Amino acid sequence: MHLLLLFSSFNLIVLAHFTSSVQPLCHDDERSSLLQFKDSLIINKTVCYDSSAYSKVASWNTEDCCSWDGITCNEVTGHLIKLDLTSSCLYGSINSTSTLFHLVHLEWLSLADNDFNGSEIPSGIINLSMLSYLNLANSSFSGQIPWEILELSKLETFNTSFNHNMELQKPSLRSLVEKLTHLKELALDEVNISSSIPHILANFSLLTILSLVKCELHGEFPAKVFQLPNLHYINVQDNENLFGYLPEFERSSLLQHLILNGTRFSGEIPYSIGNLRFLVILNIRYCNLSGSIPSSLGNLSSLEELRLGYNNFSSQDSRSLSWIDLSCINLVGEIPSWLMNLNQLEILSLSSNRLTGRIPFEIRNLTQLSFLVLHSNQLQGPFPSAFYDLKNLRMLDVNSNNLSGIVDMDMLLHKLKNLVVLSLSSNNLSLLTKTNVHTKFAKFQVLELQSCNLVEFPDFLQNQDQLLELDLSSNKIVGQIPRWFFSFSTHNLVVVNLSSNLLTGFDQGPVSFSQTGIKSLDLRSNKLQGSLPIPPLNTMVYLVSYNNFTGEIPPSICNSSSLEVLDLSHNNLSGKLP
Ligand SMILES: *[C@@H]1O[C@H](CO)[C@@H](O)[C@H](O)[C@H]1NC(C)=O
Ligand SMILES: *[C@@H]1O[C@H](CO)[C@@H](O)[C@H](O)[C@H]1NC(C)=O
Ligand SMILES: *[C@@H]1O[C@H](CO)[C@@H](O)[C@H](O)[C@H]1NC(C)=O
Ligand SMILES: *[C@@H]1O[C@H](CO)[C@@H](O)[C@H](O)[C@H]1NC(C)=O
Ligand SMILES: *[C@@H]1O[C@H](CO)[C@@H](O)[C@H](O)[C@H]1NC(C)=O
Ligand SMILES: *[C@@H]1O[C@H](CO)[C@@H](O)[C@H](O)[C@H]1NC(C)=O
Ligand SMILES: *[C@@H]1O[C@H](CO)[C@@H](O)[C@H](O)[C@H]1NC(C)=O
Ligand SMILES: *[C@@H]1O[C@H](CO)[C@@H](O)[C@H](O)[C@H]1NC(C)=O
Ligand SMILES: *[C@@H]1O[C@H](CO)[C@@H](O)[C@H](O)[C@H]1NC(C)=O
Ligand SMILES: *[C@@H]1O[C@H](CO)[C@@H](O)[C@H](O)[C@H]1NC(C)=O
Ligand SMILES: *[C@@H]1O[C@H](CO)[C@@H](O)[C@H](O)[C@H]1NC(C)=O
Ligand SMILES: *[C@@H]1O[C@H](CO)[C@@H](O)[C@H](O)[C@H]1NC(C)=O
């Protein structure tokens, strides 16, 4: 019987040799191992991240397992060499008795995006010694990565990112890289490593991907790793005790992603960063870098995302960029002129710096801009007419600068039809609020007009029915709050600030706003008089201090059960507290 079997399998091989189109059938033992593995788990749609995902194992029922979904067999031997069960909605515990570990010919295995219910990586993995690719990411494995992984000496890709409570301490990262010397891709995001990065990693000349996000790394990052000739992705963000320096970069570098935010890298950005001609993302926010930002950044012709904020750069100095965040980095002087060449820019944030001077007229050339955030600087000069040409703007925030002159609201409303967030607060601007009727105009969601020299409620607000937040504080608005004000946007308004004006009362009585959905209402420092109005039922913050309300506090105020902050001080209220 034994002999016969041997003989027939010999025939099969010979046949395969001569007619290469005929693939050997899958091996029975591998077929049954697969089926037992499948049966040891549940298919549970709720563990699938992608709701359109389907479980590959569901269709495992025909005779030839080599034709099953997710499976690849060796064309000559018929052995199973690749098993791809990514996002297969598999749920359940797994241990070394799993028949998965009988598939000893596997070279490629992905169990990523399933839910192994907090299982440890089973030591039976040692059986899969042919593996060159192993992906166990985001599959709810936990615990210590086992020593047996170190015996998989052919591994080129190892990815155990995004599991819960996973550790690489015994064995250590050092042992891992000392044993797995063929690694090309190493991803251990969110694995608690709690060590420094071994310098030997700089000898991995084939390394292409290194991803060690949030690994509790400490010590000095070996700068030579950045210079590895094949490296194109490096991400060590969110390791707050990892320090290091950026080396000189060669023109031969293949780096595409350089992500260091939330680490303690210090020193300067070398001018040679401009050599990284393939760089797509540079994110060094929240580091400790200093010196000047080199103008060679303008040479990064592949760059799509540049995030430099929250460092200690002293001064300032890119073409297909669509996205620039230079907020809070201590920029001084004028808005850098090289920015005005980046006519593909969609997002520009320069907020919270010490920028002075005028907003350059050339900003008009940035026609793709949809977010322009310049708040908290010391910019001067008139509100640039160039803004009216930025037709794609959705957010314009110049809050807290020294801009002066006149803003024509009619022009803004009908030229910038996509604008939803407008903040002009705290400048020396005056608003021209006379508007004409247009068929289509901007509908704001957030409108901040603090300190804009307003003397009356702007009429155009009557047509703004999408408003969520409105700030008209610190103006000189006189008289009554008009009847239409609390009815135009009853359903949407959440935050309203009318404080520090010269308001005396409510046209048509104070009941007008008690039907609204306002959660925060600030009426402080006006000249409101009469009896105290009851806030809307769901109001959380109600501030009416420094007015001239008289009489008793109505007991019905106690129905406003959402109230968290209530300030009635400095009025002429009398009687008992309800
Ligand atoms: C499916 O997975 C969810 C999340 O892990 C779990 O709470 C639930 O009990 C599972 N359902 C079944 C039938 O196992
Ligand atoms: C991991 O999977 C969960 C759901 O299974 C999903 O919500 C999460 O976004 C995934 N995380 C990553 C980083 O892919
Ligand atoms: C998941 O793990 C818990 C706790 O270890 C265990 O009680 C439960 O049976 C496991 N569920 C499955 C489907 O393996
Ligand atoms: C391993 O898992 C199998 C089936 O899931 C279970 O019957 C067995 O008790 C487990 N063995 C250990 C040692 O946990
Ligand atoms: C390793 O593979 C052999 C051969 O298929 C098998 O007999 C053994 O049970 C496997 N070990 C584990 C831990 O699965
Ligand atoms: C690790 O695998 C997960 C799931 O397949 C994937 O989303 C992630 O990009 C991989 N990490 C790296 C650095 O390639
Ligand atoms: C990571 O491991 C270290 C050393 O075992 C431990 O002190 C630390 O609390 C762990 N961190 C987390 C977030 O579990
Ligand atoms: C790393 O490479 C350097 C230079 O090529 C060599 O001197 C050193 O011995 C290598 N280190 C190890 C641990 O292989
Ligand atoms: C780093 O950047 C990523 C993505 O931009 C972000 O999710 C993360 O919070 C950042 N970490 C720090 C410390 O800024
Ligand atoms: C930040 O860098 C400076 C040198 O530029 C250094 O003196 C300081 O210790 C660094 N701070 C941290 C938290 O690493
Ligand atoms: C900006 O646009 C003007 C025309 O409005 C043009 O003359 C000028 O060359 C443009 N500048 C840049 C840097 O593209
Ligand atoms: C407060 O209101 C009372 C009458 O309601 C009026 O006599 C008084 O002058 C007002 N005080 C101020 C400071 O407006």
Write the layout of secondary structure elements.
Elements (H helix, E strand, L loop, with lengths): L1 H17 L9 H12 L2 E2 L27 E3 L6 E5 L5 E2 L16 E3 L22 E3 L7 E2 L12 E3 L6 E2 L5 H7 L5 E3 L21 E3 L6 E3 L12 E3 L5 E4 L12 E3 L4 E5 L12 E3 L4 E5 L12 E3 L4 E4 L7 E3 L6 E2 L13 E3 L4 E2 L15 E3 L21 E3 L6 E5 H7 L5 E3 L4 E5 L13 E3 L20 E3 L6 E4 L13 E3 L4 E5 L13 E3 L6 E3 L9 E3 L4 E4 L13 E3 L4 E2 L5
Parallel strand pairs: 3-5, 5-6, 6-8, 7-9, 8-10, 10-11, 11-13, 12-14, 13-15, 14-16, 15-17, 16-18, 17-19, 18-20, 19-21, 21-23, 22-24, 23-25, 25-26, 26-28, 27-29, 28-30, 30-31, 31-33, 32-34, 33-35, 35-37, 36-38, 37-39, 38-40
Antiparallel strand pairs: 1-4, 2-3
This protein binds 2-acetamido-2-deoxy-beta-D-glucopyranose (12 copies).
The site of one 2-acetamido-2-deoxy-beta-D-glucopyranose has 11 residues, from strand 11.
Structure explained in plain terms:
The strands form eight sheets. The chain has a 22-stranded mixed sheet, with no helix packed on it. 41% of the residues are buried. It is 7% helix and 22% strand. It is mostly beta strands and 578 residues long. The model is unreliable at 1-21 and 315-319 (pLDDT under 50). The structure holds 2-acetamido-2-deoxy-beta-D-glucopyranose (12 copies). One 2-acetamido-2-deoxy-beta-D-glucopyranose (NAG) binds next to loops. Residues 86, 112-113, 135, 137-138, 159, 161, 187, 209, 211 line the site of one 2-acetamido-2-deoxy-beta-D-glucopyranose.
